[in-house]
Design goal:
The complex is a heterodimer of chains A (393) and B (137). Helix content of chain A is 32%, strand content 18%. Chain A is an alpha/beta fold and 393 residues long. Chain A has one domain: Thiolase/Chalcone synthase (Peroxisomal Thiolase, Chain A, domain 1). In chain A, helix 6 crosses helix 10. Chain A starts with 9 loop residues before the first strand and ends with a strand. The model of chain A has no long low-confidence stretch (mean pLDDT 97). Chain B has 137 residues and is mostly beta strands. Chain B has 1 helix and 8 strands; from the N terminus they run αββββββββ. The termini of chain B are far apart. The model of chain B has no long low-confidence stretch (mean pLDDT 96). The chains are: A alpha/beta (393), B mainly beta (137). Chains A and B meet through helix 4, helix 5 and strand 5 of A and strand 4, strand 5 and strand 6 of B. The structure holds zinc ion (ZN).
């Protein structure tokens, strides 16, 4: 597989935000529409330019919502894309699809979006895991959903390489410091200390509440195009230097990846090979962080440190503001807001565009001026992984 | 008082397993070609794609592969059980199944701990395979 010819050929040219956090009286669909319209505006495009629309997987509608489909999103945006798609489970191939469609010449501008009213609608995420096993059969044993699935993986990792709360508290606290610099973050005005982390109540052991991601209202969208087209648009283009994907697919209970290597290993190798760089050249990371452990195992599988070495690696604020290698600079899914892989990816884009205000990497936060940022997306329970290396052109 | 917790919903693939449980047997499909014992059930072997299969009965011995300790009841019917342990048990024959550890305190559960099946006859229709620490070890 020679992906090198695609290096730097595709770019992200616009990001769409919405009000986020706790935003009552809104449908999930309305967040998609607002995020998409804002991404189009942000890119300086006309809505008629959008010829591809890919929605993230949408869960069961809450309350009196209608089901979110790409048909409805296109209708309400007043667009007529050549290609419509929606992720069925959590396979996280959206960026690859977008690049493929543009590379074949079928699309020029692909819009990728997600939105939900999960906070106000009280989504519990009990049914959303992607099981090979019948979910009802597992419920007979009191097994419900994603927190326990990831907790079980984390427990195996504790057993095999000695990770645990001493590692995860560093991740939770460092990300919270980034959120404290981000006015859009749900946890913006809520500092978190090591003591508060350790004193927090358990949800499913070994996870405390601060190990788990937020549940949010809101939406997020971005637009992919060719680098050539990107150069004519208003934002500084952020190009895709490398991309890799790997989908182990197996239900976590039967998997051999609880303690890694997850899909991040192969996906990372593909992305780094395409980009022609190593982890040493990464200035910052925006890692899908449904749980603290997900951040640890992803960075471990990418090769930032060996099994169990995360305990020292994350110490002393290495990934916090002012740190050597910033990770999840918006606060991430743990402390900003949950918009699937769009929370990390769009933050990487905004950092490289230099649009992050108080949390901007570089002299503002006494960190390295960012040229290259590594982003990840992860679906199911480590069943899908996408690694994306972004670069400022 | 009827049993209030969720029950398995056997389908065409999983029915033989649950019928086995009713008879207090852990039944798995064994590939006639390569010998792989598979879970969840399927029409072909995921290793060699042979459709030649026989159902075999596992010994009920295994070890805790990993576990999660519920401190919160996600369903009201489990409130009385908190804290309880869900676990993946790796059976001696290979398959890894989702189950519970019973017969010891949640704080005593460890990865790789040897366990054996114990049957929880929850209704006339269903017996759930649960696991307890192997006695005498
Ligand atoms: Zn076979």
């Amino acid at each position: 597989m020679d992906l090198k010819r695609l290096k730097d050929r595709y770019a992200i040219v616009g990001v769409g935000y919405t009000p986020q956090g706790k935003v009552a009286e809104r449908t999930a669909l309305s967040f998609y529409i607002e995020a998409c319209a804002n991404a189009i505006k942000d890119a300086g495009l006309k809505k008629e330019d959008i010829d591809g629309l890919i929605c993230y997987r949408h869960f069961e509608p809450l309350g009196d919502d209608v089901e979110v489909t790409p048909y409805l999103v296109a209708q309400l945006l007043g667009i007529r894309p050549k290609v419509l798609a929606q992720e069925a489970n959590c396979a996280r191939n959206q960026m690859l699809h977008a690049i493929g469609l543009i590379e074949m010449g079928f699309c020029n501008y692909v819009l990728i979006a997600y939105g939900d009213n999960a906070y106000s609608g009280r989504r519990t995420f009990m049914k959303e895991a992607t099981h090979g096993e019948p979910v009802a059969d597992n419920a007979a044993f009191g097994e419900f959903g994603l927190i326990a699935n990831y907790a079980m993986a984390a427990r195996r990792a504790m057993h095999l390489f000695g990770t645990g709360p001493q590692t995860w508290k560093e991740i939770a606290v460092s990300q919270r410091k980034w959120a404290n610099l981000n006015p859009k973050a749900m946890m913006h005005d809520r500092p978190l200390s090591y003591e508060e982390y350790m004193a927090a109540s358990w949800v499913v052991e070994p996870f405390r509440i601060y190990d788990t991601c937020l549940i949010s209202d809101g939406g997020r969208a971005y637009i992919v195009t060719s680098t050539e087209r990107a150069k004519d648009l208003r934002n500084p283009p952020v190009v895709i230097m490398g991309i890799g994907q790997s989908n182990p697919s197996v239900d976590v209970h039967q998997s051999d990846f609880m303690a890694g290597p997850t899909g991040a290993k192969i996906a990372g190798e593909i992305a780094f090979e395409m980009a022609g760089i190593t982890v040493d050249e990464i200035d910052a990371c925006e890692i899908y962080d449904c749980f603290t452990y997900t951040v640890e195992i992803t960075l471990q599988d990418y090769g930032f440190f060996g099994p169990g070495e995360g305990k020292d690696w994350f110490k002393d604020g290495r990934t916090a503001p002012g740190g050597e290698i910033p990770v999840n600079t918006s606060g991430g899914l743990l402390s900003e807001a949950y918009f699937m892989g769009l929370t990390p990816l769009t933050e990487g884009v905004m950092q490289l565009m230099g649009r992050c205000g108080q949390r901007q990497l570089g002299h503002t936060t006494e960190t390295k001026e960012p040229q290259i940022i590594l982003c990840s997306d992860n679906g199911g329970v480590f069943q899908s992984h996408c690694a994306i290396i972004l670069r400022r052109l | 008082m009827g049993y209030k917790k969720p029950l398995p919903k056997p389908n065409a693939d999983t029915r033989p397993f649950w019928e086995g449980c009713k008879a207090h047997q852990l039944r798995f499909q064994k590939c006639s070609q390569c010998g792989h014992l598979r879970w969840p059930p399927s029409v072909i072997c995921p290793i060699c794609h042979s459709s030649q299969t026989q159902w075999v009965v596992a010994s009920g011995k295994g070890r805790v592969y990993s576990f999660a300790l519920y401190r919160v009841a996600f369903l009201r019917t489990f409130e009385g059980d908190v804290p309880y342990v869900t676990t993946v048990v790796e059976l001696a024959e290979g398959p890894r199944i989702l189950t519970n550890i019973v017969g010891c305190s949640p704080s005593e559960v460890r990865c790789d701990m040897p366990v054996e099946v114990v049957w929880d006859d929850v209704t006339d229709e269903f017996s759930l395979p649960k696991f307890r620490p192997t006695s005498g070890t």
